[in-house]
Amino acid sequence: METKSRSLAQGMTLCGYTKPVPSTYSVKPAFQRGLRPLVSLFARAGITANEVTLLACVLSASVGVLTAWRIQSRFLMLLLPVFFFVRMALNAMDGMLAREFGQKSALGTCLNELCDVISDAFLLLPFALLPAFDPVWMGAIIVLAVISEMAGTVAVMIGASRRYDGPMGKSDRAFVFGALALWIGLGWNIIWVSWLFPRLMALLLAVTIVNRIRNALAESRASLTTSRSC
To answer: What is the model's pLDDT at position 185?
Structure first.
């Protein structure tokens, strides 16, 4: 087993495979450790991973629609950063329930990926309606966010692992848009970032898509090379 792992690592190096681009996803293990007691409580209560996934999606859609409807509400803007954190916690918990309590399923995998992009779209929608931002650019960010998650998912189809490379993965977007919502909710001026922010986000998302595809291809080639050498 150790020899096979070493061969795989060498194959990845030979094929140009690189380490994932840093992102806030790297703090996930520590985050999960803090959630473990709550996850155990959910499991004992009979709450399933799929139920948590669907709950996160329904809450995300509700919060997104409500905030978009009352776009001038500073209270709802201040609520968004809190909800981004809650959503990240629920997303981590459904995975832990699936892995650690024998709840993995094909349906769960489908729900996880689909609900992620649906939640993203609803939670980013209010920002496209803010007068300070160009709705076309903000709409492009939503589309690019969906494509970046697709890029991470299709990696599995070519024999690579599900890619979470940055610099603008799901958790990174939650942090950035949560900070922006906090800034707006506190009533601080955003005019100075209204032009730069959407363009910079679009660029970072495009880089994320490229990184995920590039590293997926490199990982797939490395795995194929190792399989042939064995």
So the answer is: 94
